[in-house]
Write a structure and sequence with these properties.
The chain is mainly β and 357 residues long. It has one domain: Pectate Lyase C-like (3 Solenoid), CATH 2.160.20. It is built from four helices and 24 strands. The radius of gyration is 23 Å and the shape is globular.
Length: 357
């Protein structure tokens, strides 16, 4: 009997990975089928079959996947999209996910993920093949219960971002966890060309949302309004940036200063807070890297959070004290290009406004 139990135990160890192995579905692209919505259809089929969390959707190198509507996934399930590692030729470039040019579907969300999502080696465009840009976001979290909310992105490019009230990635959960590795956000804009189209941001005037962990490793943010913003008392408990590059950021890279645990290391800040010093601005001088606010307003430390950071439990008592905060900002570099210095009014070639006005 003992030998039989040992055999059964070994059998379970050896063969459990086989039973847990995910099914890989290779999705045909637009050029192969002359049809939009091939990725939508593949995801919908897996949802209807109850196999979404057990499926990997594999996209073809240099493929184009035109969404004919938002991809919406149920709570408690995982959407996983991947492709081969990019090569050195055009034919081995990452596949692209983009919008249909049709005005029929709502374009509020490229993806509306109620549970979790994993993506690797893809490019996501906020535009259609005719070059039209659309205001959209990738929302992660359950809009009904504000549950779920986990994402893992690796080697993903977010391009031609256009948003009017949040960011390319929109946390929408009570315990959001986001992990980004080797990702690239670029070319974000909004109606007034400054602060929306962020890389990651909760929606404007958000309530009941919280970020547990947000991690960026070897990521680049270029030509954006903001990078990461904490809005209306919605803050992140653990925020990490390592080996990241912030390039041509019109306003804040990391805002506001409501940090609990925050680590920014080995990163480059080039042409950040491009507004520069605006003497007439009500909030005075803004830095090009980070700001750190005290929990409580004081004469010595300045304006505080303006709210009690009591996310869990909601008892009106702060979850952490000043002594319990951990903020590390080391081995970083800050630089302004000469053309931007001129534009700000500190160089020899004039500017729209002057440091003396």
């Amino acid at each position: 009997m003992k030998h039989l139990l040992n055999i059964l135990f070994l059998f379970s160890i050896l063969f459990t990975p086989l039973f847990a192995q995910k099914q890989v579905v290779v999705v045909k692209d637009y050029w192969e089928t002359s049809a939009e919505g091939t990725l939508n259809d593949a995801v919908t089929a897996a949802i209807n079959a109850g196999t979404l969390s057990n499926t990997i959707f594999k996209l073809k190198p240099y493929g184009t996947y035109v969404l004919n509507g938002s991809i919406i996934t149920p709570p408690g399930q995982t959407l996983e999209i991947t492709a081969d590692d990019a090569g050195n030729t055009q034919l081995t470039a990452p596949p692209m996910i983009c919008w249909t040019a049709s005005t029929a579907p709502s374009k509020t969300y490229l993806f509306d993920i109620a549970g979790s999502v994993k993506m690797k080696n893809v490019t996501i465009m906020w535009a259609s093949l005719d070059g039209t840009r659309y205001t959209s976001t990738i929302r992660i979290g359950d809009s009904a219960t504000v549950a779920g909310g986990r994402c893992e992105f690796e080697n993903v490019m977010f391009d031609l971002i256009q948003q009017a009230s949040s960011g390319a990635i929109q946390p929408f959960a009570t315990h959001f966890k986001g992990y980004f590795k080797n990702c690239y956000w670029r070319n974000g804009t909004d109606a007034h060309f400054r602060y929306y189209s962020r890389a990651v941001s909760v929606p404007f005037d958000a309530q009941g949302i919280h970020i547990d962990t947000l991690s960026f490793e070897n990521c680049t943010f270029a030509n954006l309004g903001y990078v990461y913003m904490q809005e209306k008392g919605v803050y992140g408990d653990n925020v990490f940036f390592n080996h990241c590059t912030f390039y041509n950021i019109v306003m804040f890279t990391l805002e506001s200063g409501w940090w609990h645990n925050m680590y920014v290391t080995n990163s480059l800040f080039i042409n950040t807070f491009m507004f520069g010093y605006v003497p007439v601005a009500a909030d005075g001088v803004n830095g090009g890297t980070i700001s750190i606010a005290p929990i409580d307003t004081s004469t010595a430390l300045g304006n505080g959070f303006g709210f009690v950071p009591d996310w869990s439990p909601k008892d009106g008592v702060a979850d952490f004290t000043e002594k319990e905060r951990h903020i590390l900002f080391v081995n970083n570099c800050y630089k302004l290009d000469p053309w931007l210095i001129d534009w700000m009014g500190y160089g020899p070639n004039g500017s729209p406004y002057s440091k003396d006005k």
